[in-house]
Design brief:
This protein is of the alpha/beta class. The chain folds into two domains: 51 residues, no CATH class; 222 residues, Rossmann fold. It is 29% helix and 16% strand. The strands form four sheets. The protein has a seven-stranded parallel beta sheet with strand order 9-10-8-11-12-3-13, sandwiched between helices. Strands 1-2 form a two-stranded parallel sheet. Strands 4-5 form a two-stranded antiparallel sheet. Helix 7 crosses helix 8.
Length: 282
C-alpha cells in the first residue's frame, strides 16, 4: 500500500513502477498536475477517486470542525492604492509623505504593496486583529492556540519582533518562531501541543503546514499568498481537529478561525465557505 502523497513522485516513483504488484493509495490531497498526478498513477478518471470522503461530509458527521473565515480589512494589499479613491484624511497622509523629486504617484499596484510584508504598520495591524478578533480560551482571557503562516524566515522573525514590541507582557514566550532553522524546534512543537503551555502562537514557515496534529488550534493566520490549492487545504487541515473540553468540561471545540490580509480565502470560498452551515464574514 502506498501513502499517495509525496512518496509516489520524484525518485520514489520508480519503486512503484519497477515492482509488479497491486497498488493501493491513500491521500488527503490528490494532485492533478502534469508531473504530479495521483489520478493518472492509479489509472483513474481525472478528479474521480475510487472512494472519497469529503471534508464537508466529515464535518457533517462530527469528525472534524468547520472553519470560520474572517478577512483582515486591508484592501490596499489586495487592490493597490489609488489616490482618487482615498478618504480626505488618507489623502492628507499621502501628501505628507516625502516622495522625492518625482512627487507622489497617483497609484501603487498590488505587487508593490505585497512587498510591505515587512511594513511595521501592516504587521501591527494583523497582530492587533488577531489578538482582538481571534478565538479565545480560558474564559476569554487568552488567545487560543494559533499558527501564523509567514512568507519566509526573515518575515517570521519580523512578526515575532513586532509582537514582542506590541505585547511586552508576553515577550519571548507567548509567540515563538517554529521553522526548520529553529533550535529545538521539536521541543517547541511539543510545548505548543500542550493546552495551557507557552507558546500559544507558532510563527511558522512551511514546517507546520502539514503533518502536525494539535487539536487545540483555534486560529490560522495566512500572512502570505498561497498559490497551491493542495498546500492551502493541507494548511486548513491544521485547524479542523476535534478537541473535547477545550473551553470547559463538556464544552468542546466547534469551529476554528481563518484570518488573512490577502486573497487566499476569497479565491476559494466558493469551494468551501458557501457550503451549508459554514460561516463567512468580512
Amino acid at each position: 500500500m502506498a501513502w499517495a502523497h509525496r512518496s509516489i513522485y520524484a525518485k520514489y516513483g520508480s519503486i512503484f513502477s519497477y515492482f509488479d504488484s497491486y497498488l493501493v493509495g491513500l491521500t488527503a490531497t490528490p494532485k492533478d498536475e502534469v508531473d504530479h498526478n495521483t489520478y493518472r498513477l492509479f489509472q483513474l478518471e481525472q478528479g474521480v477517486p475510487t472512494y472519497a470522503y469529503p471534508l464537508e461530509q466529515a464535518i457533517n458527521d462530527k469528525f472534524l470542525v468547520p472553519p470560520r473565515a474572517i478577512s483582515v480589512p486591508m484592501q490596499f494589499q489586495r487592490q493597490g492604492i489609488k489616490y482618487d479613491q482615498l478618504s480626505e484624511e488618507e489623502k492628507a497622509e499621502w501628501d505628507e509623505i516625502d516622495w522625492g523629486e518625482d512627487g507622489p504617484p497617483t497609484e501603487v499596484d498590488p505587487a508593490a504593496l505585497n512587498q510591505w510584508l515587512f511594513n511595521e504598520s501592516t504587521v501591527d495591524q494583523v497582530l492587533e486583529h488577531l489578538m482582538v478578533q481571534g478565538e479565545k480560551v480560558a474564559s476569554g482571557d487568552r488567545l487560543g492556540k494559533t499558527i501564523i503562516f509567514a512568507k519566509n524566515q526573515l518575515h517570521a522573525e519580523y512578526i515575532e519582533e513586532r509582537f514582542n514590541s506590541n505585547y511586552p507582557e508576553y515577550r519571548g514566550a507567548f509567540a515563538r518562531i517554529i521553522t526548520f532553522k529553529t533550535a529545538y524546534a521539536q521541543t517547541l512543537i511539543d510545548d505548543f501541543s500542550i493546552k495551557d503551555k507557552n507558546p500559544h502562537i507558532a510563527i511558522s514557515v512551511d514546517m507546520l503546514d502539514t503533518g502536525i496534529d494539535v487539536p487545540e488550534v483555534l486560529n490560522l493566520v495566512f500572512f502570505k499568498l498561497v498559490r497551491s490549492k493542495t498546500k492551502f487545504w493541507q494548511m486548513i487541515g491544521r485547524g479542523t481537529r476535534l478537541c473535547r473540553d477545550l473551553y470547559a468540561p463538556g464544552v468542546d471545540k466547534k469551529f476554528f478561525n481563518i484570518a488573512t490580509p490577502f486573497d487566499n480565502i476569497k479565491d476559494r470560498r466558493s469551494d468551501l465557505f458557501y457550503s451549508r452551515g459554514w460561516h463567512w464574514s468580512t
